[in-house]
Amino acid sequence: MWFGMTVILGVSVYYSVKYLQNPLAKYDILAVECANVGILFGILGMISGMVWAQFTWGSFWSGDPKQNAAAVGLLIYFAYSILRGLFQDDSQRNRISAIYNIFAYATFIPLIFVLPRLTDSLHPGNGGNPGFNAYDLDAKLMTIFYPAVIAWFLLGVWIVNVRSRMRMAQQKLEDLDIYL
Amino acid sequence: MIIREKEIMSSFYSEVTTLVRKEFVLEWRQKYAINGILLYVVSTVFVCYLSFNLRIPDGITWNALFWIILLFGALNGVSKSFQQERDGRHFFYYQLVSPEAIIVSKIIYNSLLMLFISFAGLLVFSLVLGNPVQDHFLFSVNLFLGALGFSSTFTMISGIASKSTNSATLMSVLGLPVIIPMLLMLIKVSKNAMDGLQRNVSYDEIITIFAINAIILTVSIILFPYLWRN
Prior knowledge:
heterodimer, A: mainly alpha, B: mainly alpha, globular
């Protein structure tokens, strides 16, 4: 889920950049939906990770650097949603949220990938813990792990696709003055 | 072609220096920011000092308190950088100078402001709550990087926040999560400096802080023209 989330958020940044280059409502909708799916994956990852942590490390919240970083990352993206709610004017809202999205991603990446590497973590593969590939089951585990990563990503793409098409259709209807 | 580029560069420098000078003149006339934040930092230090029942807290608490006070000082001080002047004047600047010059000059001014505030804050803080730092050089370098990082991040965030009507809340909501990676690194390095550990222990963190600073600066300079265009 983390991998899927990071990639989806990256796609969101890509559309934000495209929006700034060429302000079309389509790009904004795609960027927002990607960010929403990223938030959804983040929350799911947080909850399932906490359940996993309860069984592996003995408590739901163990103050692990990666867990903390993930929580902060979620806060950054919640702030993004709040920011979007604050503006009355659509084009201003789209532009400013695109700017914040790019800015946030630039700090989100070091937060997730660099900082935890600098401290000991309880996660597998960190701080002297064996990584997943150290187990005997590695081949079997990997055959599940990589397809799962890809599957989460594709699931995200699908959700984004459906939701953004729905929103674009709604917008078109609004433009035609037919209110649902 | 080369001459043309040189002209552009030199006009950029003159724009930046003029704008920085303008910020200082404004500051000198109003004397609001420096005195305001200085007073803010000093009173927060006293609140902490009195809340600890006049006792000096242990190392970790000292460190955390110091950085939190600086963080909120920066948040207050930098947040006014785009709200101090009225909208009409922004349109005026918009016609006169390039947006890059605006953000660069604001960042330079805020960094100088924050440098002054953080070292003055350190002075007051150590006067009242003691100074357990062992490696003063490392601590100062760290403080320097921290001041630069706080000011560049919050300058961009305050630019974003100033576009909305409810900018005070927005400033902390947007700014605090974004500053956390840097804050964590800073707190760690300053703890190392307090304990007087070997300096090569902190190189990784120092480089990371440097890198985050560089990323934030570049991203701000690239993105600000889009924010400025209204």
